[in-house]
Amino acid sequence: MFAKPIPGRMTAAAEGDVVILLIGMRINHFWGVHHWLPVLLAMPRMLRELGRDKSRGLLGHTLLAGSPRTYYVVQYWESKEKLLAYAAAPDMFHRTAWAMVNRKERKSRQHVGLWHETYIVPEGSYESIYADMPEFGLAAATGVLPIERRGRAAADRLAHRSGARSGPEAG
What pTM was computed for the model? Predict the structure, then answer.
């Protein structure tokens, strides 16, 4: 249950672009439990659904509480295409949950707030360091590497490019 720290300094083994979805809710009125509880319970169900089918593209996630009123999930996705495909898939629970929210929106609007932000971060525009930490965040989603593999300084890690080179200059 409690992950052991990995000794030393590590970085995430992410390659290519990184797709990050922040999605959450805010309880505006605690007494409106019947409005916000179904929303709160929907996210773990979607995460379980995605966890059972890795081909859908969710690499990993972290559940967070911003306050007693605000709960959110940081999600790491294989690609924006897979994220959008899951959101629109008629056979997945997201579609059912979103339809439920839209049906109840007028009555629930004052009781629960919803939000999401999606970021497509190009390779060379992210870097990470984890010192004496268990796998966390992007590293939990993509694995870890000793920091020396990507560079000891943030500028070196930001300069990392994946993939084999091709063409006349390769080799």
Answer: 0.86
Looking at the DSSP assignment, which residues form a beta bridge with residue 121? 18
Task: Retrieve residue 168's tokens.
Answer: 């006349």
Tens-place pLDDT, residues 21-71: 999 999 999 998 988 898 889 999 999 999 999 999 999 999 999 999 999
Q: Tokens standing for 69?
A: 């009123």
Bridge partners for 145 per DSSP: 11
C-alpha atoms less than 13 angstroms from C-alpha of 108 in its C-beta half-sphere: 20
Q: Is the pLDDT of residue 86 over 50?
A: yes
Phi, psi of 47, rounded to the nearest 5 degrees: -65, -40
| Angle at 80 (CA atoms; ends 151, 20), nearest 5 degrees | 50
Supply the DSSP string of 83-130, one letter for each residue: HHHHHH-TTSHHHHHHHHHHHHHHHHTTTEEEEEEEEEE-TTS----E
State how far the Cα of 45 lies from the Cα of 5, in Å rounded to an integer. 28
**DSSP string computed for 61-87:** EEEEESSSSEEEEEEEES-HHHHHHHH
Written as six digits, the tokens of 124 are 């060379």
**Site of tokens 């672009």:** 17
